[in-house]
Amino acid sequence: MIKAGIIGATGYAGNEIVRLLLGHKEVEIAWYGSRSYIDKKYAGIYQNFFRLVDASCMDENMHALAREADVIFTATPQGFCASMLQEEILSTTKVVDLSADFRIKDVARYEEWYGIRHASPQFIPEAVYGLCEINREEIRKARLVANPGCYTTCSILTIYPLVKEGLIDPDTIIIDAKSGTSGAGRGAKVDNLFCEVNENIKAYGVASHRHTPEIEDQLGYACGRELRLTFTPHLVPMNRGILVTAYASLKDGVTQESIHEAYEKYYNKERFIRVLDPSVCPQTKWVEGSNYVDINAVIDRRTNRVIMMGALDNLVKGAAGQAVQNMNLMFGFEEAEGLMQVPMCP
Amino acid sequence: MIKAGIIGATGYAGNEIVRLLLGHKEVEIAWYGSRSYIDKKYAGIYQNFFRLVDASCMDENMHALAREADVIFTATPQGFCASMLQEEILSTTKVVDLSADFRIKDVARYEEWYGIRHASPQFIPEAVYGLCEINREEIRKARLVANPGCYTTCSILTIYPLVKEGLIDPDTIIIDAKSGTSGAGRGAKVDNLFCEVNENIKAYGVASHRHTPEIEDQLGYACGRELRLTFTPHLVPMNRGILVTAYASLKDGVTQESIHEAYEKYYNKERFIRVLDPSVCPQTKWVEGSNYVDINAVIDRRTNRVIMMGALDNLVKGAAGQAVQNMNLMFGFEEAEGLMQVPMCP
Amino acid sequence: MIKAGIIGATGYAGNEIVRLLLGHKEVEIAWYGSRSYIDKKYAGIYQNFFRLVDASCMDENMHALAREADVIFTATPQGFCASMLQEEILSTTKVVDLSADFRIKDVARYEEWYGIRHASPQFIPEAVYGLCEINREEIRKARLVANPGCYTTCSILTIYPLVKEGLIDPDTIIIDAKSGTSGAGRGAKVDNLFCEVNENIKAYGVASHRHTPEIEDQLGYACGRELRLTFTPHLVPMNRGILVTAYASLKDGVTQESIHEAYEKYYNKERFIRVLDPSVCPQTKWVEGSNYVDINAVIDRRTNRVIMMGALDNLVKGAAGQAVQNMNLMFGFEEAEGLMQVPMCP
Amino acid sequence: MIKAGIIGATGYAGNEIVRLLLGHKEVEIAWYGSRSYIDKKYAGIYQNFFRLVDASCMDENMHALAREADVIFTATPQGFCASMLQEEILSTTKVVDLSADFRIKDVARYEEWYGIRHASPQFIPEAVYGLCEINREEIRKARLVANPGCYTTCSILTIYPLVKEGLIDPDTIIIDAKSGTSGAGRGAKVDNLFCEVNENIKAYGVASHRHTPEIEDQLGYACGRELRLTFTPHLVPMNRGILVTAYASLKDGVTQESIHEAYEKYYNKERFIRVLDPSVCPQTKWVEGSNYVDINAVIDRRTNRVIMMGALDNLVKGAAGQAVQNMNLMFGFEEAEGLMQVPMCP
Fold it and tell me: Rounded to 10 degrees, what is the CA torsion of A187, A193, A196, A198?
């Protein structure tokens, strides 16, 4: 049994890490860190854990935590992990950072999109981008994993094989993404009130959302050159789930079969990626509560484009589930340990 | 006072025509036509009309209805209106058809996309496409108006000025549309059950939705040549509302200002189209229950694309409201009569 | 045309007063008062009013407002109206207070349930409880109307005739109420976030909700003696609507017919109260967006109880609509002016 | 490993049994019975099981199934199980019937409330009412278990200790229950369409719901005499969850402490019943996806009543979870095997 500490345990992603680790055979939770609820019973904040978690919230002292825990999950606002991280911590503890602090290799690009100074750029080179299906071997050896964003996980996994295999024109990629509201976090903001979200849909962060450079970087690595794409997120009146609908122009001669083969080539041994049968479109409900990503693509012959679709649970594969999957790889556990929840429907 | 008859009065669009006409000064409803509920009290099906509507449902005999009504609304499945229409009807009564039967000028194209034979192609030439803001003068003179589809109204109005003014490349248009569930109608289908729709989002009709040719035709007229575009509808867990997010590559030198000017040029005198302030994105909630369309566009300089957004209430401007607006034009009433509902929020 | 001022115009109830008054023939809005948004465009906060309201928010200076307005609506937290009200204001302006400050005649009882000191008890005696269907004549003559609470309006109107006619035992009344989330206001609280409310239902304020004494007082007046009842509110994942399910033991010999007659006796001339047909249960959807209250009752012969049910839109008949109805009475306007919205479904 | 067969596998309860059994160490599913989808891939109907279930649907031949399976779950309409059951089946296979066929001991009472003739009353005496926390020992020995209804499980567990200990007057019990829509099943009915349920709440089956006699019987056994109570179910716009709010008059001298002690007496060793801390009200979200029931009660001193509240997931503890729990008892497995899902929030 290893010991895990969670900083930001009272946010939605932190809460989901707790849910998953409670069913994990190799891990016990040693620290429920929270800025707002120190000394309060954790199960008093999330009553779903009543009688399952007895602990009270601790502070967010990452140094003290590093002495107690074998792995630290930071489910915190941008900048926190970078500001706290030190060699001393990394030399004793592994870190899975769910913020964006170590996702982007070019520090100037990070600072431009996030509008803050990076406090510990010296750790960026060693940080591994924790998209397990693509960087599995590097993750196994990592001390510091940058857990991908929710939109980015869904976008990259949906598009990656077609870019990698050169089936689409990378300069034509447009990603139209739709997310449940838990992605907006548990902060008390008017925009996230029930009455503002329910019976409503809107785009936000148009042409400016921070997940854009992250997707561009990773797909750029896949095709071997820089690319620029359009990414538009939308807020949907549901708790969980991200659906990505992505568009690109096909290279000459690409068929429905070659697309399916590309997906199969990269994903047919992947436990958590399900390439759906022809003509079946992903739905977020079919992955709810689970670590699966459902993917498919349809060719629009009239316009010579492909419509790629991917669905995941933003709190599981889009955050906590992927973090646990990364931890499993880093510690040599069975990769799917604690992650075999069957999707819940309805 | 004129008399109106509604065929398909017990569907969601028909029900919404009733709601709007009850507040209309120039119209009384003479016929609530329904296939399934003949002789049943209309207010027993839609109890919101309890004590407001005393009538019982009639059959769908369009010939008998034509002798009683000055205007007939057909809110019926594809093929019905075409199969019933005759010169005798049109010579005594005006018809607003909410189905697709008379929207597409090329009968072969209609038959290909809808998979049925058109029963009265002789009326297609005279039918006017009832998008009031674009075809106002023709509508005033029409006997037969083809009321546009919900997705198409939103898509066309959102994109039209930029195509018409040549600001975007028509071959790059991609429309990603999101609709509330009332657009799927009131038929008892498993796919539209609460538990199947709630906490879920999916694309459907990918690369094959029937509103595609309708949008292509109208935008083609605007730019003076045929075009092909990609259209992807999604089902969103809300009752009402359509949000269109449309993408296109900009022609050289197009600025945020020139885009705004294009919208203003075509819409600044339009009562029901609201071009939003810079950086404000449309939300379906802000038009709920009303005949407004909210529109805006944002330039993505990094990719030289424009993201166009439009929102409307699919049952009002996307169906019944537009039908009433068309009727107002056809009978010389004040165009906004019966349509000044203030959007309801939350 | 009279001039109206709204204090608390940026809350949900204030926003709904605006929606209704925009369609009112006799009133123009002269003052959009707000504590949080002074000098900001009102339509920038509620974009549904874009192009319909050009004004910016004013402060909440009730004295200055009294010099400009013929009527003031205070849609403000408990204590505000009582703390601001003075004879000088009431001598020039009529006031409809949507808070609880003047609803309870016994000031000690008010202070006990609300936990604050009443700042102007001298106005309590003249304040009229603004339940139009019961106190119509007093309202016509009032300077100060205490607009009833949302739960209380629904509860009282549902139970009143049966208490008044002595058909039920007043000591057995239990009210189980369910409300949409707009009743909780627009304050940024974690408990009202979309993800906390959606896919959830809970009771709150059990045996302690502040609407309890208000219901008890009014039903007590109806039966001529004090009574105590149990009231339990619940939070439901929807924007609008209150459903009250109330229980009481029947007096001997009471039949379904005598109950129906009691409702008819008090309500058959009431425009906004719809006593439904036998066996039809009220649904909140059937009154959404309107000023109607739908009511019915079913006898449970096995237990000799009656189950009384009432449904209204908490923002209309439960707040803003009733406030406008009160204003109409106070100024001698047609009682239904501005309130004839047809319920919107779906 | 035992083999399980499910008749009615394509309904919501059947689908949930599959979800739970996929994580059960001692059971494999041998038969996915369905009337409507014979020979179709089960995972094609519920795509959440894609790649997790490869089987196709079988028919509903209970006799053939009995030869293959060690346990049969019948998640079927009323009357089915009774019409199929024979000694031959029960002599080789254990049966957990999720319908009401064997819940009510008095066959005349069953036939009166359900309006059908009972086809095999000879099995009623041996059938054990499968409320595990109350009838655990009988269930262990049973061949035929009548799995309790969703409303009844929640109602009985919430009220049972107070009736059993004589703390409340059994003749004053009123149950106001609220259910998510999955309780209405997956049949294609207009009333259960998204647009009819969303943004709406209603009571139904008032004074006539079939779960009434079942609750009365079980609480009657607890207090040693017949009782009659009022039960009112409501339909809430959410997928899962039942909240019961129950009212009763207190016997003299009953305190908050004595109520808490009664709950503790019966439930403190129960794994799936969580008696909440004082003043914490149950919320359906806190048990979603899990087999827990959360319970609490508040005294209303002013009226000398107690308000009892219970929450569960209608598809888990209210149906499939309890069925699996019953199976575990019948086969001597660990009672919680396959049922330790942590509630999912949000």
Answer: 110
Nearest Cα to D203, choosing from B44, C256, C297, B50?
Answer: C297
pTM over 0.90: yes
Go through C167-201 and write b for each residue having 16 or more CB atoms within 10 A of its CB, e for each that does not: bbbbebbbbbbbbbbbbbbbeeeeebbbbbbbbbb
Nearest to C294 by CA among D202, A101, B301, B23: D202
Cis peptide before C346 (omega within 30 of 0): yes
Q: Which of D180, D202, D206 sits opposite C298 (nearest CB)?
A: D206
Q: Distance (Å, rounded) from C-alpha B33 to C-alpha B35?
A: 7
- For chain A, the three-class secondary structure string (H helix, E strand, C coil) is CEEEEEECCCCHHHHHHHHHHCCCCCEEEEEEECCCCCCCEHHHHCHHHCCCCCCECECCCHHHHHHHCCEEEECCCCCHHHHHCCHHHHHHCEEEECCCCCCCCCHHHHHHHHCCCCCCHHHCCCCEECCHHHHHHHHHHCCEEECCCHHHHHHHHHHHHHHHCCCECHHHCEEEEEECHHHHCCCCCHHHEHHHHCCCCEECCCCCCCHHHHHHHHHHHHHCCCCCCEEEEEECCCCCCEEEEEEEEECCCCCHHHHHHHHHHHHCCCCCEEECCCCCCCEHHHHCCCCCEEEEEEEECCCCEEEEEEEECCCHHHHHHHHHHHHHHHHCCCCCCCCCCCCCCC
C252 band by pLDDT with thresholds 50, 70 and 90: very high
Strand D305-312 to strand D242-249: parallel, antiparallel, or no bridges (unpaired)? Answer: antiparallel
Q: Which residues of D touch B198 (CB under 8 A)?
A: 181, 194, 198, 237-239
Q: SS3 breakdown of chain B: % helix, strand, coil, rounded to 5?
A: 40, 20, 40
Q: Which domains does chain C have, with CATH numbers?
A: 2-126 (3.40.50.720), 151-313 (3.30.360.10)
Which residues 47-76 in chain A show a CB within 8 A of chain B?
none
Q: How far is C341 from chain B (nearest CA, A)?
A: 8
Residues contacting D215, CB < 8 A, separation 6+? D151, D152, D155, D156, D175, D229, D231
ipTM: 0.97
User: Is the CB of residue B25 less than 8 Å from the CB of residue C340?
Assistant: no
The C-alpha of D278 sits at a distance from chain A's nearest C-alpha, in angstroms, of 12
**B45 at the A interface (CB within 8 A)?**
no
Is D81 part of the annotated catalytic residue set?
Answer: no
D303/C229 touch (CB, cutoff 8 Å), yes or no: yes
Subunits next to D (3 or more Cβ pairs <8 Å) are: A, B, C
Whether the CB of D46 is below 8 Å from some CB of chain B: the reply is no
What's the pLDDT tens digit per position in A12-40? 999 999 999 999 999 999 999 999 999 99
**Letter string b/e over residues D6-42, b meaning 16 or more CB atoms within 10 A of that residue's CB:** bbbbbbbbbbbbbbbbbbbebbebbbbbbeebeeebb
Please give, rounded to a whole number of angstroms, the shortest distance from the CA of C48 to a CA of chain B. Answer: 4
Tally of CB atoms within 10 A around C154:
35
Residue B62: strand, helix, or coil: helix
Which residue type sits at B199?
Answer: E
Question: pLDDT digit string (tens) for B87-129?
Answer: 999 999 999 999 999 999 999 999 999 999 999 999 999 999 9
**Cβ-based contacts of C286 with chain B (< 8 Å):** 47-48, 50
Of the candidates D340, D240, D218, the residue with the CA atom closest to the CA atom of residue D291: D340
Q: Which residues contact B49 (CB under 8 A, 6 or more apart)?
A: B18, B22, B42, B43, C342, C343
Distance separating alpha carbons of residues B124 and B105, to the nearest angstrom: 6
Alpha-carbon distance of D260 to D275, in angstroms, equals 8
3-state class of D72 per DSSP?
Answer: strand
